[in-house]
């Protein structure tokens, strides 16, 4: 199953709104074929593996991290391909929560006499598809908040400098994150201060969908984000004036403080097939997502320095000690000269959280 | 040698101004006896081990992390005891930088025909006695700055609450630090805000010397620190008024901002036999030690929460990005719900740094 998960990960950032899936076909302890879902619209992992079989699959076992589908979507049902293959046993990591499947795939295989085991390495399988599971359950993308900070939590100096807080390895890891997420989001403050490209600068990388939260449409006509990668989506309030920005302008409700309604923002992105978003600041945007209870994970890249001034990665009014938002430390690691801290926010609903 | 270092560590926080030393006597691969220096004034490790020999040490080898002394101090020279013992070979971790020894111990043993190897596991031996080496070289104590902070570097909420930022395991680790350091230091701001006891609340623990930096002698007569453990040392400016505080009052030079001259503070503590100090805040005191270049190591206990307001662990005026103090990540570890980050500051002069 761990091999199937590794195969599945090769599709990371390419499969949404589909899940990542890998499949391994084994007989008598020998791997006969492997497959994975490369990109939405392409073959599913099970069919990919079956297509690579040199001879018959009769009597073999397939390991697959997610329940095979049993409906016609962009491709025919995987269950049909399995039944035609002669495969005798299927080991499934977890049930697919898609209402068209949700146990029906397993049921169909069993009805036709196949042996099916479900729940092998399920925690790892859930973690793999945390974004897909979050989307299936909450009808919104999985939200990862990312910041490069100092040991006193600053994302820029008092003079406004933020390039660079962290070292080259941490910055590269930021691009690795962008490469695996469906969209990357910044607020207009960060856009105006830093003029970020929001593209993925990594060999073999692909660009995430750039998204700007910009209540008043302050985004300049020559902002780098408009031309550096994919055509951005710019969310604004209903009365913002569009001066012909080269972007998809989406108007959503604003609150009394002219802040965009984030549930609407995420809902729109979900409807576009976006299952994971990386929020890259600034502090006020992070605060808004935290206040709205819409953060699933936090990735902090911590540089071992102090600035003793400047904005911190969570802005807004101070919390009291007893109502300060608290997180769960998932892991820490040293990354070049810096530290990466991964934090979980929610309680187990989304993936392995 | 690693066994000798482990033995030595049992004296941590008790041996200053002496170093920590452990000794193991071995013959034909069998450990004959072990010893260590328990507390200043007591037997040295070499003699402690020799005293525990059941029979003769003739032909045996002693492993000891620091060069044996060859002078009369509080106890007679260890070299004499070694020469009388019949030990044939001595393996030494590192030369003792004490000017009365500094190679003379090794020389004396060799002159009397013993085989002596020097520099075995030297890096570990230097790290063990980082405080002793710092004191020997700089004539000042080894300075460790410690703070319990949030992910945005706060040591208290905007309302002033700091109890508790971190969880029970991190707080216990703070007492473990106090148990191994010779003195624990706070500024008057922290004293007035938190009224800390500064004692060691740990089974079998011993109290470090409490030290207060208090330019204007604002320490209240009923401050807990005055009665919770050992009699404190309170440093103040030359014109501060002493109202009969139950403490040793030491007057030092102040600068134009009424801040105490920290070199004088550390020099006084060094003269009292203090080889290591733990600075426990607040942010202004940390800043002063950093500005003075007097920090050797930093221990941060980071709680996975944010406060979005309140004082940070390094106070004072903001730095620019290109002159922000930078540190070296020594290690990170998860400690209960929190993260411990150990940072090195200086360049190799003190111990293993």
How is this structure best described in words?
- Two copies of one chain form a homodimer.
- A nine-stranded mixed beta sheet of chain A has the order 10-9-8-7-11-6-12-14-13. A five-stranded mixed beta sheet of chain A has the order 2-1-3-4-5.
- Helix content of chain A is 24%, strand content 22%.
- The first copy, chain A, contains ten helices and 14 strands.
- Chains A and B meet through strand 13 and strand 14 of A and strand 13 and strand 14 of B.
Helix-strand blueprint:
The structure is a homodimer of 353-residue chains.
Chain A: H1 2-9, E1 22-27, E2 30-36, H2 45-51, E3 61-64, H3 78-85, E4 89-92, H4 104-111, E5 115-118, H5 122-128, H6 130-138, E6 142-150, H7 168-180, E7 183-187, H8 188-194, E8 209-213, E9 233-236, E10 248-251, H9 262-271, E11 276-279, H10 283-291, E12 297-303, E13 328-335, E14 338-344
Parallel strand pairs in A: 3-4, 4-5, 6-11, 6-12, 7-8, 7-11, 8-9, 9-10
Antiparallel strand pairs in A: 1-2, 1-3, 12-14, 13-14
Helix pairs in contact in A: 3-4
Query: Helices and strands of chain A, in N-to-C order?
Result: HEEHEHEHEHHEHEHEEEHEHEEE
- Widest sheet: strand ordering of chain A: 10-9-8-7-11-6-12-14-13
State the separation between the terminal residues of chain A, measured CA to CA.
20 Å
Largest sheet of chain A: 9 strands, mixed
Segments of chain A where pLDDT lies below 50 for 5+ residues?
none
| Mean pLDDT, all residues of chain A | 94
Question: Roughly how many Å is the radius of gyration of chain A?
Answer: 22 Å
Shape of chain A: elongated
In quaternary terms, these chains amount to homodimer
Supply the helix-strand structural class of chain A. alpha/beta
**How many alpha or pi helices of chain A?**
10
Beta strands of chain A, count: 14
Identify the most extensive interface between protein chains: A-B, 50 and 50 residues
| Helix content bin of chain A | 10-25%
> How much strand content do the residues of chain A show?
15-25%
